[in-house]
Design goal:
- The complex is a heterodimer of chains A (about 400) and B (about 110).
- In chain A, about 70% of the residues lie in helices and about 0% in strands.
- The radius of gyration of chain A is 24 Å and the shape is elongated.
- Among the domains of chain A are: about 80 residues, no CATH class; about 110 residues, no CATH class.
- With about 400 residues, chain A is mainly α.
- Chain B has a 4-stranded antiparallel beta sheet with strand order 2-5-1-6, with helices on one face.
Chain lengths: ~400, ~110
């Protein structure tokens, strides 16, 4: 094995085994701090040794053993030996052994703990990416354009609260599971969206590292909770969105809207996988939740070889369904966009206009109006709407696209 | 593990008879299930007196130590295995007393 091969093997093992190693240590030592540090120590040891010794036959087991040894060393060094028992009680786990077949994976415990609703959303995101995703603090800071010290503080504070308030280290009971899974999915969706429409100047418009990590963690949840419809729905939604990633930004760095994307560049494998998941959920015959409906809408778009083949009435019908589970003005905006495709821009514009009270501060509201006004030939009004959308925009590629459209107005 | 469940209020009124009845039912449940440690409702914040005896002579000040729109109206101290259990009980307590509550672990 060459040095490069070993480096690749270490990266792969890191992706695949990090969460398992942290989770196993958290369970054994009852402390997320110790688990995280010992796992990092073990990977650092691997980086030092594997190039000379070769990659061990069972890298995950090697890392867990090494990390456990590091954790014990650390506890001894810090003279905490007598406190181990106490420490173990701090990260609380009174789970009776589950019935056979019950969901019980260490990584799932870890993720549910990191996404606990008693933690602030920013803390859940940072903690999940660090503990379950294995991203470093600088990587997370870069991903969300915040200071490393801020990310570090969020993680430290969250770990301290988990300990002090005794947030349990376990998978929620069956009765709480749907609500808690939805909390985990909210964290993963936020990570994905930040990657897909990155905010702020001086960042790549699409952050593949974040979208890829969100998909990876959602796949993990899907593997652990294969019966959950919303998990499947979110994974499908992410895959069908990710499939369009390369078509989404032009060579000139502009955001390309769905109707203008080169559909030939869409990732056929990801689309096929996403469609499979959507079909699986349709066949399940259970009323779909928000992510499943969003995935179905995405499936309608990705089924059209040409934008003109889009089944807009299906998009409207799905948005109607979505309004019932998520009556937000953003959903109403998307419905209005679909309505404009069927009934014309005038009708669409009227529907969009009714949302002004709620969406006046949202760039997409103004961008939608600008587009409809442009199609109606009302250049002056369109220009004003583009100005507003540009002013409120947060994504560099989107602002570039809006600016060009505005400047092309006659 | 013990948690303080503080009742946060922003209205001047005391609990209504319906709220009192709901609180009684909730308290009985806490006792029956072994979560009960202590609980109490407090008189209005303007009945408070602040004492500072750090300087050798006790200073008395009329009124609460911090003037705010929201104040502590009462509390429960509960015994719960972990935050999950405490949050569930606190959610029921909030419903019973019809007010916001805050959960904080004892150190």
């Amino acid at each position: 094995m060459t040095g490069v091969d070993v480096q690749e093997a270490i990266s792969r093992v890191h992706r695949e085994e990090w969460a398992r190693v942290v989770a196993a240590l958290a369970r054994r030592f009852g402390d997320l701090d110790i688990a995280e540090e010992a796992a990092a120590d073990a990977f650092a040891t691997a980086v030092g040794r594997w190039p000379a010794d070769g990659v061990p036959p069972s890298p995950g087991a090697w890392l867990t053993t090494t990390a456990s040894r590091k954790a014990i060393d650390r506890i001894r060094r810090e003279n905490k030996r007598g406190d181990t028992q106490k420490e173990a009680q701090l990260l609380y786990d009174d789970d009776p052994p589950g019935p056979p077949g019950a969901i019980d994976d260490e990584r799932l415990r870890l993720i549910f703990t990191c996404c606990h609703p008693a933690l602030a959303m920013e803390a859940r995101v940072a903690l999940t990416l660090r503990m379950a995703g294995g991203l470093t603090v600088p990587e997370i800071a870069r991903g969300f354009l915040v200071q490393e010290t801020t990310v570090g503080r969020r993680i430290t504070r969250a770990k301290a609260k988990i300990k002090a308030a005794r947030i349990p280290y376990r998978v929620p009971s069956a009765e709480d599971l749907p609500a808690r899974v939805s909390g985990v999915l909210a964290v993963l969706f936020l990570v994905f969206n930040e990657g897909y429409l990155a905010t702020g100047p001086g960042t790549d418009p699409v952050r593949h590292d974040l979208t890829a990590e969100a998909i990876r963690l959602t796949r993990l949840i899907r593997a652990l909770l294969p019966e959950d419809g919303e998990v499947a729905g979110l994974l499908a939604l992410m895959l069908l969105t990710e499939a369009r990633r390369t078509a989404r930004v032009s060579a000139g760095g502009e955001l390309v809207t769905l109707d203008e994307q080169d559909r030939g560049t869409w990732d056929a494998a990801l689309i096929a996988e996403g469609h499979r998941l959507v079909r699986e959920r349709l066949a399940a015959g259970v009323a779909p939740g928000r992510y499943q409906i969003l995935a179905a809408i995405s499936a309608v778009h990705t089924s059209a070889r040409d934008v003109r083949d889009t089944d807009w009435s299906q998009v409207v019908a799905l948005n109607d369904q979505l309004v019932r589970v998520d009556p937000s003005p953003v959903v109403a905006l998307n419905r209005a966009i679909a309505v404009a495709e069927i009934d014309g821009p005038e009708v669409g514009l009227a529907a969009v206009g009714r949302l002004e009270d709620k969406l006046a501060g949202y760039h997409a509201y103004h961008a939608t109006r600008a587009d409809l006004l442009r199609r109606l030939g009302r250049s002056q009004k369109s220009r004003e709407a583009y100005d507003k959308a540009i002013e409120l925009g947060v994504n560099t590629a989107e602002i570039a696209a809006l600016t060009r459209r505005r400047d092309q107005l006659g | 593990m013990q948690y303080l469940v503080s009742v946060v209020d922003d209205t001047a009124g005391l609990a209504t008879p319906e709220e009192d009845a709901a609180i009684d039912v909730f308290n009985d449940r806490l006792r029956a299930e072994g979560h009960w440690v202590f609980a109490g409702g407090l008189a209005a914040p303007d009945s408070a007196t602040v004492i500072d005896n750090r300087g050798g002579e006790a200073l008395f000040t009329d009124g609460p130590f911090v003037e705010s729109k929201e104040y502590l109206a009462g509390f429960w101290i509960i015994e719960a295995a972990d935050l999950e259990v405490a949050l569930k009980l606190a959610a029921e307590g909030s419903k019973a007393c019809n007010r916001k509550v805050e959960v904080r672990p004892f150190a």
